[in-house]
């Protein structure tokens, strides 16, 4: 039997490398998937430009952050990017409304099949992707400033006397706090306010809601505004936590879609659950368990290999496999989204 | 209807003549070698666009994983043509074989569990047990094999190599590999919402490229496999071939006339070097044209057959076709496999032309979305249209970069040299072509949804 401290050490390692990163990544995915799912529920197409819109919002925020930094403005222990966020959101909202006016509205009025709208979103993706690369380039950008850690590994060690340290990055803390607040706000909005109720009605039955006097243009506008805000925040949080690179954001499209579909596309609650399911599967499957197991088993049993199920370079394969399983077993997703 | 068709034929003639004119202009203005390079890539792009058109134009299937199928074709080119690495085979072949057997065994066992224990409550538990055991067994053979193979002379080889067969065989093989991948994806995602197929293909293409990049024992990963064999003669061999020299003498008789001795030799040597490059590219162009013509003929025949009529019926009204007793999902699977196979063939052709497998060169914008622009702009549902789109868009894509840099240079000419804004604009000019392509796609979709050569209604 391993001793108590060994079990605690194993637990700390697990929390440090799996639980906390998974929680932060899951929150970022959930926010991204919420945007996809809202657009899907109201506008009824899968928005493939989502990843690049995310990159656009993050880019605007980074540019404003740099400008604020050059003015000597800072946000105390918090990253300056949070101050720049409102402007980033405003820029993204503007982008979404402009693309809706010039691209999507035409097909909506014509009642084109969803696949046409998807195709149009590919065109938008191209344009936004090109703009982002043109303005900020293709390189990695780090824009985190302020206090790096809420808790440092060394402080944790001296505090508890354990071998292993537990570090919580401020970006992770900020991510989770913001995600909780946003989700609460969103659900309050959808359930309690007039605009939120009209959105739900429109999503549920378009014709009936039009008969009841709901203004479809207003519903669509609100949807884009909310989706743009959520997307930008998700992008900025991801960038603070890791780094910003246009191509990475394009690749985030796959886990975000997987999260939305796993949860049940068109269902906000599903997007959140899906986000965590995808994030934790990704981290759990690509984490090497060697250290955790070494603490738990007798010394002679200690594993030689890394005990990693799948290399981190295949993390996209994880979201894909979950997506495939869901499509095979329960195509409507966990919370019965709209499909078929 | 007659008028419409005539109109289309005129359009096609005009458009293809303009394309030929543009290529000739590049040949005269820049160089013939460049013009032929563009032509070869135009031909490959056209084949890819044909593949996508089979899926989109005939059946309305939305595949955004073209990159993955092209990459499978590329892998096929490498695996078929590279000579096997003896030492690496000796070091790892048995373990690789065992791990492959374990892998297949696991899948079969899991399938049996799924079938036999359908209504049992132990199904999930047994399934997980089978999968975990199978995974561990596979890994226990696979890991040492990979280490052994990658350790053999890793600077030069470090991979198993291929079959050492003529590379041209890899074109059909690439098609078969891509068809296999398409079968798996189609089985999972067809019959559900149309955008699910799109997401699934996006996923598989990322995974295929990730495998090519990371499985060094198979493809050498990011270290690339260079010097693939060629289906056409090498320039160096041509320099010493009697028949080629006499051919050049005949063609360049006017240049050589009146020259004697050393002067003649020097001019002849230069002419031979230049012509050898052009000759090799012409050989490639001939091969690619042959493939394009064969596939196009098959496409036209298929489209005009009862099968093609059924496909259009399904595309235009799935519910009605289903009510008539057509197996919509089955037909969709068929056409999805066919189209992906064509993309695989094109991918193998591209790697053959490059002479190397570079996994990092597979980027979605170039391999997936550009092909989509080709299909939409050329005319979805029309085979000639897709080919024209392949030519036109590739030509614009290649020539847009120098044009963009020139434009930025002209626009910023008033700024002083070394100005940071100017430098940024000129350096980023290449990204503007993404914006241009996106705008072209959106504008064509909106204002001429049929493309340059629209589908003719029959």
Short description:
The complex is a heterodimer of chains A (340) and B (458). With 340 residues, chain A is mainly α. Chain A has 14 helices and 2 strands.
Task: Describe the protein's architecture and organization.
The complex is a heterodimer of chains A (340) and B (458). Chain A has 340 residues and is an all-alpha fold. Chain A has a single domain, classed as ABC transporter involved in vitamin B12 uptake, BtuC, CATH 1.10.3470. Chain A contains 14 helices and 2 strands. Chain A has a two-stranded antiparallel ribbon with strand order 1-2. The radius of gyration of chain A is 22 Å and the shape is globular. Chain A starts with a helix and ends in an 11-residue tail after the last helix. The mean pLDDT of chain A is 88. By secondary structure, chain B is mainly α. Chain B folds into 2 domains: 2-84 and 161-447, ABC transporter involved in vitamin B12 uptake, BtuC (Orthogonal Bundle), CATH 1.10.3470; 85-160. Chain B is 77% helix and 0% strand. Chains A and B meet through helix 4, helix 11 and helix 14 of A and helix 7, helix 16 and helix 19 of B.
């Amino acid at each position: 039997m391993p001793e108590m401290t060994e079990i605690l050490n194993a637990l700390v390692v697990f929390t440090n490398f799996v639980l906390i990163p998974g929680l932060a990544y899951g929150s970022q995915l959930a926010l991204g998937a919420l945007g996809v799912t809202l657009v899907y529920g109201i506008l009824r197409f899968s928005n493939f430009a989502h990843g690049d819109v995310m990159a656009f919002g993050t880019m605007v925020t980074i540019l404003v952050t740099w400008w604020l930094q050059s003015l000597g403005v800072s946000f105390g222990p918090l990253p300056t990017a949070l101050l720049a966020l409102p402007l980033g959101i405003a820029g993204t909202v503007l982008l979404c409304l402009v693309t809706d006016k010039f691209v999507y509205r035409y097909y909506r009025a014509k009642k084109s099949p969803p696949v046409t709208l998807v195709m149009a979103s590919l065109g938008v993706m191209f344009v936004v992707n090109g703009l982002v690369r043109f303005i900020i380039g293709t390189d990695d950008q780090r824009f985190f400033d302020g206090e790096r850690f809420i808790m440092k590994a060394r402080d944790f060690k001296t505090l508890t006397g354990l071998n292993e340290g537990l570090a919580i990055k401020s970006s992770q803390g900020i991510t989770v706090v913001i995600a909780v607040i946003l989700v609460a706000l969103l659900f309050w909005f959808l359930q309690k306010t007039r605009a939120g109720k009209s959105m739900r009605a429109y999503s549920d039955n378009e014709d009936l809601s039009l008969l009841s006097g709901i203004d479809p243009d207003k519903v669509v506008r609100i949807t884009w505004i909310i989706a743009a805000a959520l997307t930008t925040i998700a992008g900025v949080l991801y960038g603070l936590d890791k780094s910003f690179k246009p191509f990475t954001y394009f690749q985030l499209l796959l886990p975000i879609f997987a999260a939305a579909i796993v949860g049940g596309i068109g269902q906000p609650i599903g997007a959140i659950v899906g986000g965590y399911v995808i994030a934790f599967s990704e981290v759990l499957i690509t984490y090497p368990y060697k250290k955790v197991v070494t603490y738990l088993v007798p010394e002679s049993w200690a594993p030689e290999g890394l005990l990693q199920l799948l290399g981190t370079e295949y993390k996209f394969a994880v979201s894909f496999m979950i997506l495939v399983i869901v499509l095979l077993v329960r195509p409507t997703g966990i919370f019965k989204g709209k499909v078929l | 209807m007659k008028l419409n068709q005539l109109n289309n034929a005129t359009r096609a003639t005009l458009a293809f003549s303009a394309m030929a004119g543009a290529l000739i202009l590049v040949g005269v203005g820049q160089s013939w070698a460049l013009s032929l390079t563009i032509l070869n890539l135009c031909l490959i792009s056209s084949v890819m666009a044909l593949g996508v058109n089979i899926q989109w134009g005939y059946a309305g299937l939305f595949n955004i994983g073209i990159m993955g199928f092209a990459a499978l074709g590329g892998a096929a080119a490498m695996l078929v043509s590279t000579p096997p690495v003896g030492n690496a085979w000796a070091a790892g072949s048995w373990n690789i074989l065992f791990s492959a057997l374990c892998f297949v065994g696991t899948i079969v066992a899991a399938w049996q569990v799924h079938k036999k224990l359908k209504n049992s409550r132990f199904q999930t538990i047994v399934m997980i047990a089978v999968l975990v055991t199978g995974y561990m067994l596979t890994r226990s053979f696979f890991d040492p094999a990979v280490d052994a193979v990658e350790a053999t002379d890793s600077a030069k080889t470090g991979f198993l190599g291929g079959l050492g067969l003529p590379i041209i065989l890899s074109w059909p093989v690439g098609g078969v590999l891509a068809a296999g991948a398409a079968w798996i994806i189609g089985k999972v995602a067809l019959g559900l919402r149309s955008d699910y197929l799109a997401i699934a293909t996006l996923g598989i293409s990322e995974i295929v490229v990730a495998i090519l990049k990371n499985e060094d024992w198979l493809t050498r990963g990011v270290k690339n496999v260079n010097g693939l064999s060629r289906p056409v003669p090498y320039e160096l061999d041509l320099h010493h071939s009697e028949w080629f020299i006499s051919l050049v003498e005949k063609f360049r008789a006017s240049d050589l006339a009146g020259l004697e001795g050393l002067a003649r030799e020097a001019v002849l040597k230069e002419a031979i070097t230049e012509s050898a490059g052009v000759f090799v590219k012409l050989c490639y162009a001939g091969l690619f044209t042959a493939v394009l013509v064969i596939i196009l003929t098959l496409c036209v025949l298929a489209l005009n057959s009862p099968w093609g009529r059924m496909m259009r019926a399904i595309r235009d009204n799935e519910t009605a076709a289903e009510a008539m007793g057509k197996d919509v999902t089955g037909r969709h699977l068929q056409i999805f496999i066919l189209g992906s196979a064509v993309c695989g063939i094109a991918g193998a052709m591209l790697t053959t032309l490059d002479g190397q497998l570079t996994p990092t060169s597979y980027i979605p914008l170039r391999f997936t979305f550009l092909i989509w622009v080709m299909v939409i702009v050329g005319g979805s549902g029309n085979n000639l249209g897709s080919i024209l789109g392949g030519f036109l868009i590739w030509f614009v894509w290649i020539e847009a970069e120098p044009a963009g840099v020139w434009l930025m240079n002209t626009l910023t000419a008033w700024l002083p040299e070394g100005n940071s804004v100017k430098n940024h604009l000129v350096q980023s000019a290449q990204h503007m072509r993404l914006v241009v392509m996106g705008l072209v796609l959106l504008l064509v979709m909106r204002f001429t949804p049929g493309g340059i050569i629209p589908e003719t209604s029959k």
